[in-house]
Amino acid sequence: MKKLVFLLSILLISISSSFAQTAAEKELIQLSMDKWQWMSDKDVDKLDKLFDAKAKFVHMSGTWKKDEELDIIKTGRIWYKKATVKDTAMEIVGNTAIVWNRITLDAIVREQVAVTEFTVTEVYQKQGNDWKMLALTFSSVRDTHQIKH
User: Fold this and answer.
1) Is residue 105, in this structure, part of any structural domain at all?
2) N or C: which end of the chain has fewer CB within 10 A?
3) What's the domain range around 45?
4) Total domain count for the chain?
């Protein structure tokens, strides 16, 4: 009887942690999708809350910090018109999450239309009840590139 109770306890713990991770994964994927919309809408207030104060952003033309990224979005120097997400993968390790999105980005960069295939790596950290973005890196890829799950 004690063995049965012990086994059921272990099973319950495993199931509940599995559901918790699934909930966290769903939350992060939705947050990532929301981020693309906020970037398209130039909603720097929501992005300001999402981006950690020490966040770094790596683009094809440079690397910068939070304040410059927000200014670039606000002024339209890069307008992330539409990110079509083709595939998403993620890993959660402790309070850190990495989200990979395979996207086609329609943007206006320096007044030029740009349509580019990227794998975007997003790093998040759980801070209190919120996820904060620590890093966003765009890697240019061929349109046949696939994220390995």
Assistant:
1) yes
2) N
3) 2-140
4) 1
φ, ψ (nearest 5 deg) of residue 42:
55, 40
Q: What is the CA radius of gyration of the chain?
A: 18
The model's pLDDT over 88-103, given as tens digits with 9 standing for 90+, comes to 999 999 999 999 999 9
DSSP state of 128: T
Give residue-wise pLDDT tens across range 103-148.
999 999 988 999 999 999 999 999 999 999 999 999 988 766 677 7
Beta-bridge partner residues of 115: 106
